[in-house]
């Protein structure tokens, strides 16, 4: 069964125009869905809005959205009032500019869709645009009214089934600054030896992305649990997680380089590390008992 388009309209670039559809490129419909039930009756439950003061249910016709202007004080926004401030929905994705495919930081990418022509009449113009973008290695920046919001779209050649990949973009105010996340991260001085060892380890682990090699372990475990309950078998249990010891990063890198038969930078760095360790004075043993060390770590 062919997927149903999430949105249909027209893609316009100057005088060029063609009918297109947006098809969700990612879906959670295949995930196991669990419903809320009454433990006593086994009947399915449904959500209900209640007045937080009276505790009484509020029917759909009496529900309205509102904006809190101060604690406990709201202004209501009627559906027709919200619809009136939206621009006219002309069902058009208008292309504003073309830019290099890597011209937008990936942190702004939101939800992916496949963009494809909806009929044979649009296929020729669509194919012309797609081939031109692929040849120039550019992406298109467009705008459209999607799902009651004006959204920016980044449209790129996908190389799959003759479709373009259209990703909605987050607005600038929605994307947090990296400086906020790293504000309290201290500056660390990394020695040349550690950089060489880290580079060597990364090279030994070089690979490529294969989505089929990755599994949703929670979904798999949940499926096994449901199957066991349906068949009346003992319930599966998760394997106990191994406790990992806190190790010295430099020592771990040295050990990994040695285990992988390190050569080049790895051997050179290991030789330097050995000389440095020989020159360094021996550390005094920790006089604290094990219990005291554990409590110290917890307190920190």
UniProtKB/TrEMBL annotation:
<feature type="domain" description="Ku">
    <location>
        <begin position="55"/>
        <end position="187"/>
    </location>
</feature>
<dbReference type="InterPro" id="IPR006164">
    <property type="entry name" value="DNA_bd_Ku70/Ku80"/>
</dbReference>
<dbReference type="InterPro" id="IPR016194">
    <property type="entry name" value="SPOC-like_C_dom_sf"/>
</dbReference>
<keyword id="KW-0238">DNA-binding</keyword>
<comment type="subunit">
    <text>Homodimer. Interacts with LigD.</text>
</comment>
<protein>
    <recommendedName>
        <fullName>Non-homologous end joining protein Ku</fullName>
    </recommendedName>
</protein>
<dbReference type="GO" id="GO:0006310">
    <property type="term" value="P:DNA recombination"/>
</dbReference>
<comment type="function">
    <text>With LigD forms a non-homologous end joining (NHEJ) DNA repair enzyme, which repairs dsDNA breaks with reduced fidelity. Binds linear dsDNA with 5'- and 3'- overhangs but not closed circular dsDNA nor ssDNA. Recruits and stimulates the ligase activity of LigD.</text>
</comment>
<comment type="similarity">
    <text>Belongs to the prokaryotic Ku family.</text>
</comment>
<keyword id="KW-0227">DNA damage</keyword>
<dbReference type="GO" id="GO:0006303">
    <property type="term" value="P:double-strand break repair via nonhomologous end joining"/>
</dbReference>
<keyword id="KW-0234">DNA repair</keyword>
<dbReference type="Pfam" id="PF02735">
    <property type="entry name" value="Ku"/>
</dbReference>
<dbReference type="InterPro" id="IPR009187">
    <property type="entry name" value="Prok_Ku"/>
</dbReference>
<dbReference type="GO" id="GO:0003690">
    <property type="term" value="F:double-stranded DNA binding"/>
</dbReference>
<feature type="region of interest" description="Disordered">
    <location>
        <begin position="257"/>
        <end position="300"/>
    </location>
</feature>
<feature type="compositionally biased region" description="Low complexity">
    <location>
        <begin position="267"/>
        <end position="280"/>
    </location>
</feature>
<keyword id="KW-0233">DNA recombination</keyword>
